[in-house]
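sorry for the late reply, my laptop died twice this morning and i had to redo everyting from scratch. anyway the thing you sent over, i finally got around to it. pasting the sequence first so we're on the same page, its 197 residues, then the predicted structure underneath. double check i copied it right bc i was rushing
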Amino acid sequence: MDKKRCGWVGDDQVYLDYHDYVWGRPVYDSQELFAKLCLDGQQAGLSWITILKKQKNYEAAFANFDPAVIAKFDAAKVEELLQDKGIVRNRLKVNSIIKNARAYMANFSDTKGEQGSDFSEFLWSFVGGSPIVNHFEAMEEIPVKTSESETMSKALKKLGFNFVGPTICYAFMQAVGMFNDHATYCFCYNLGDPREG
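ok and here's the structure:
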């Protein structure tokens, strides 16, 4: 018998794998969270599958989303990236990843601790440190933003991040498991927290 999945999942294998193994599963690694936040910003005005299919290209172009490396990208590097057919060649979007890396380094890199060690803690604080489990039965019930995503958006903007509006933040929060928005009938609904067991 076929597994029941959320209504937004198409039949593309890339999408199926993303839904089954990635979306909604809690992520606590700071660099992985940084990468996902940047990729969600790239989605603005496009479908998520477009970015998903370019993810490996983004990882290659942006030093595996290492903020310390990206923060040093200069104008010449921007021009080089704008020639890269594997990513979305939009100057604002390319610059947004660099701007976000610089904001990350300015706020979450500490000579005493590990780089970005508190970025994860900072982001998870907007949901009280644990996933919020919703009980949606239909796609129409899922909001495009929440009070938590609005608060996160304001806080990130204040720190110098961009392409982090409340809708982008909510998509990010869903993707990294801060909200479990799998439909109640979806086989992924009872994901659990990887830190438990």
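Residues 29-180 form a domain with the Endonuclease III; domain 1 fold (CATH 1.10.340.30).
thats about all i looked at so far, will dig more tmrw
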